[in-house]
Amino acid sequence: MNENQFDIRIENTSLYYGSASVFKQITHYFASKAVTSVIGPSGTGKSTLLRTFNRMNDRIEGFRATGDVWVGGQNIYEEDIDVYALRQSVGIVFQKPCVFPKSIYENVIFGIKRLQPERKKEFADLTEQALRKVSLWTEVKDRLNEPGLSLSQGQQQRLALARTLISKPDILLMDEPTSSLDPRSARAIEDLILSLKENHTIVLVTHNIGQAKRVSDETIFVCNGEICESGPAEKLLENPCCQETRDYLNQGR
Ligand SMILES: Nc1ncnc2c1ncn2[C@@H]1O[C@H](COP(=O)(O)OP(=O)(O)OP(=O)(O)O)[C@@H](O)[C@H]1O
Ligand SMILES: [Mg+2]
């Protein structure tokens, strides 16, 4: 196996909040240019794991990671890592749309305005490209100066995604991105995930097993501080090996 073909690799990784461990010595290579869904009971550490990949947990007091976390060829918990550059190449989208009290346009350029101010002349074009990518352009092109918060929840989630995509991340982390959306908006995001996987490595946390089946190539099931089971999504979700996975999947039936 060629290790370099994986954008994200964790090896003997343990994650802690203070003295409490969330994961103990887990190892997994995430498939590149594919969607890996992460499923498992509430409180088992799915969000913690996702935030580990772009060091979003750094802000949480007491958080600690040991072992290796390789992202894009870098061991990202080494000291000399440029965390801002890392977060440009590893974008994250949360359950609740993250929209700032600014205009639609300012929301889209929020990150690049700070990190790439020299590209100011391109901002308008980049905004259009990003909004087209998330199928929001036609809905907002005549109201770019209106508040982002005036959009519907589904539109706000696509706006947040446009802001993430404008930085051209290689990796997209999505933490229950559709759980606060109506079914139609949720399907729009799922369609987007499917179209984005051609060029992005996507890790998706979801409690929606139907969604995991529809969009993911690989699935991992986490439970009791471990990755209990991983493999092709269809096989794992239809015919799991572990009793824990079976019990979890049967709860929803
Ligand atoms: N900021 C924090 N400080 C201390 N402990 C935390 C913090 N955030 C989460 N935890 C603990 O870490 C464990 C994993 O939490 P996490 O939010 O990653 O779970 P999850 O699998 O995403 O759950 P859910 O499905 O409900 O979103 C839980 O026991 C939680 O209480
Ligand atoms: Mg969570």
List the helices and strands and how they pair.
Blueprint: E1 8-17, E2 20-30, E3 35-39, H1 46-52, E4 63-71, E5 74-75, H2 83-89, E6 90-93, H3 104-115, H4 123-133, H5 137-140, H6 153-165, E7 171-175, H7 183-196, E8 201-205, H8 209-215, E9 218-223, E10 226-232, H9 233-238, H10 243-251
Parallel strand pairs: 3-8, 3-9, 6-7, 7-8
Antiparallel strand pairs: 1-2, 1-4, 4-5, 9-10
Helix pairs in contact: 3-4, 3-6, 4-6
Magnesium ion (MG) binds at residues 46-47, 175.
Structural features:
253 residues, binds magnesium ion, alpha/beta, binds adenosine-5'-triphosphate, Rossmann fold
Task: Describe the protein's architecture and organization.
The protein is α/β, with parallel strands linked by helices. The chain has one domain (3-100, 171-251): Rossmann fold, CATH 3.40.50. 36% of the residues lie in helices and 25% in strands. The protein has ten helices and ten strands. A hairpin with a 2-residue loop joins strand 4 and strand 5. Helix 3 packs across helix 4. It is globular and about 55 Å long. 40% of the residues are buried.
